[in-house]
Automatic annotation (TrEMBL):
The lineage of its organism: Bacteria, Bacillati, Actinomycetota, Actinomycetes, Micrococcales. This is N-acetyltransferase GCN5. PANTHER family: [RIBOSOMAL PROTEIN US5]-ALANINE N-ACETYLTRANSFERASE, GNAT FAMILY, PUTATIVE (AFU_ORTHOLOGUE AFUA_3G00765)-RELATED-RELATED. The keyword Ion transport does not apply. Residues 12-181 form the N-acetyltransferase domain. It holds the Pfam family Acetyltransf_3. InterPro entries: Acyl_CoA_acyltransferase, GNAT_dom, N-acetyltransferase. Keywords: Acyltransferase, Transferase. Signal peptide: none annotated. Belongs to the acetyltransferase family. RimJ subfamily.
Amino acid sequence: MVLRGFGPHGEVVLRPLRRGDADDWMELRRRNATWLGQWEATSPRPQRGAAPTFGGYVRLLASQARSGTTLPFAIEYEGELVGQLTASSITYGSLCSATIGYWVSEHVAGRGIVPTAVALTADHCFTALGLHRVEVNIRPENGPSLRVAEKLGLRDEGLRRRYLHINGRWCDHRSFAVTADEAPDGLLARWRRTWSTTDAGRRGDTPS
């Protein structure tokens, strides 16, 4: 599955991670080790056995996608691999919800890539999957991610104490969410109106 849309500075494409991405992905992670390490999800249980190969990791993501509980994507910006996004904990029944997590390379941060990717994924969850709600959980200290929630107009649902294991310890997170009825014409359309209005204000004109 491939999702694509235009953000304020160019096209964003969400597609499956491929084994052929190995060199680019590992170089991206190496260059962003410090940038991402402080927010990296970890397990409180020690890992047993050897770390999975990149091919094994890609197969795991594909298996999770086939199960219907996870939507894992590589993020491309202007044809370049720049990060990942995952919609996980996809649940139906009385909840109909999913949780979105992501990371993006520091060298393209601030270009509207993550808000566009989150909006594309949320709209897919609302339309193709028929979900009612998506949420994003963010460390209170993570300013760039908090700005993503602000740009998309996500509702702040409060603080979850010691919610996720991050970088070796249990950390608080703020939860943000949006429901399908809150964005009837789509979250991407809402995001586009936000940045179009901002750009128009800078130019001194009015968006059509």
